[in-house]
Amino acid sequence: MSTLTNRRILLAITGGIAAYKSAELTRRLKDAGADVRIVMTRGAQEFITPLTLQALSGHPVHTELLDAEAELGMGHIELAKWADLLLIAPATANCMAQLAQGKADDLLSTICLATVAPIAVAPAMNQAMWADAATQANLDTLQARGFHIWGPGQGIQACGDIGYGRLLEVEELVTHCQQMFESGALAGQHVVITAGPTREAIDPVRYISNHSSGKMGFALAEAAIAAGAKVTLIAGPVNLATPERCERIDVVSAQNMLDASLQLISDADIFIATAAVADYRPINPADQKVKKTPSREEFTLHLVENPDILATVANHADRPFCVGFAAETQQVEDYARAKLAKKNLNMIVANDVSDPSIGFNSDNNKVTLIDQTSSTSIGPLSKRALADKLIIEMANRQKAQQ
User: Fold this and answer.
1) 80: closest CA among 100, 104, 98?
2) Arithmetic mean of pLDDT, 231-245
3) Cα–Cα distance, 122 to 21 (Å, whole number)
4) Distance between CA atoms of 155 and 132, rounded to whole angstroms?
5) Is 95 one of the annotated active-site residues of the chain?
6) Cis ω on the peptide bond leading into residue 123 (within 30° of 0)?
7) What is the distance between the alpha carbons of residues 8 and 16, in angstroms, rounded to a whole number?
């Protein structure tokens, strides 16, 4: 499985003929799950256009150190902080000389000094330039400073010479990038998580809802991202910041949440339903605010059952590994086990929301993890610590059931 999911790779391109390979390299890195942003030197732009790299990466290409627009958005310091890995490919002899001297006279050299991310240099130049004593001295300097040197390869060069100096093949560079990162328990997997409450409209200003804060679902999203997964979070109305490297879809009603879930499940490996979905909704929400009048002492709502999102997903032809959450106030394990069977789930996480220390809006939780053959109590723990444990359990059980 790919180890580049959620990884941020800053690809720097310098001015050599091998720059034409950077288009394919960008595409392959993105295929492996990486988020790729591009820095180009002036020389690189003579060989391949920024527009090409922008189209392939999906982000604006950065070319100038003193760029007013870039400084308002993502300047050189922000780019340096953003990267998990800085890959310079191709790296010319001139680029290696600048790095060895610690210069900071353009965007790329400045980023190299400002970043704490690992820097990988993929040299590409004429074989005589590579063999020159100055280049080899610069190579020794960069290696002594902890730069990763990938290549060069050997073979026929653009000038017709044969020898060391070719840029490594794109697949080799992608493999090197993958080897820079540890593979998490969910590396390369797509995890879809529902979180928070739903709101079912009575009229334009009133609704039926519940006390779910969404904290457990957001903690699971963070834990899944840390385990290497691509995460899509379908969130009801909550006041929580989106975890970094997470795609978020905001919804309001149960039907909204079901529609979003069904659009994603064909591409999902694991579906985790932490959302506290309203069981019922008003049949006919009023178009205008229902006014209080002296003659109306009672107000009757006619409700209809909402769709069961988790059961719908779990019984779909493209079903992923399905995990439910059961928020109960009594007979917690009995009710949870019944839901496990009824909804056709792989696993269910049950918690007692009658306990204020671990219920809705609490930062801590204690749960019972239940599958077809066992039950395990976990906690009390912070919701993030609990989420880490649950993600490992889900990953292990998913693999066991494949």
Assistant:
1) 104
2) 96
3) 12
4) 18
5) no
6) no
7) 24
Residue entry with tokens 């679902």: 217
Contacts of 144 (CB under 8 A, 6+ apart): none
Ramachandran angles phi, psi of 198, nearest 5°: -115, 160
| CA 65 and chain centroid, separation | 29
Structure tokens at 193: 């998580």
Cβ distance 159 to 126 under 8 Å?
Answer: yes
CA angle 197, 202, 208 (to 5 degrees): 25
- Cβ 31 vs Cβ 230: under 8 Å: no
Q: Determine the Cα–Cα distance for residues 151 and 199; give it in Å rounded to an integer.
A: 57
* Choice among 95, 112, 159, 246 that is catalytic: 159
Q: What is the pLDDT of residues 278-303, one digit of tens each?
A: 999 999 998 999 888 877 778 888 99
| Other Cβ atoms within 10 Å of 58 Cβ, number | 11
Q: What is the DSSP string of 297-352?
A: S-----EEEPP-HHHHHHTSTT--EEEEEEEESSSHHHHHHHHHHHHT-SEEEEEE
Closest CA to 46 of 65, 66, 19: 19
Q: Which of 86, 138, 107, 87 is nearest to 41 (CA)?
A: 107
Cross-strand pairs, 233: 193, 248
Higher per-residue confidence, 366 vs 275: 275
Asked if 239 and 161 touch (Cβ cutoff 8 Å), the reply is no
Collapsed DSSP state (helix, strand, coil) of residue 208: strand
Percentage of the chain lying above the pLDDT 90 cut:
71
pLDDT digits (tens, 9 = 90+) for 84-95: 999 999 999 999
The angle that helices 93-101 and 133-144 make with each other, rounded to 10 degrees, is: 50
Instruction: At 314, give phi and psi (nearest 5°).
Output: -65, -20
- Cβ of 401: how many Cβ atoms within 10 Å? 11
Counting every residue, how long is the chain? 402
Q: What are phi and psi of 364, to 5 degrees?
A: -120, 165
- Cα R_g (the chain), whole angstroms: 27
Instruction: At 48, list the tokens.
Output: 């391949």
For residues 58 and 51, is the Cβ–Cβ distance under 8 A?
Answer: no
Backbone angles phi, psi at 215, to 5 degrees: -60, -40
Q: How far apart are CA 135 and CA 140, in angstroms?
A: 9
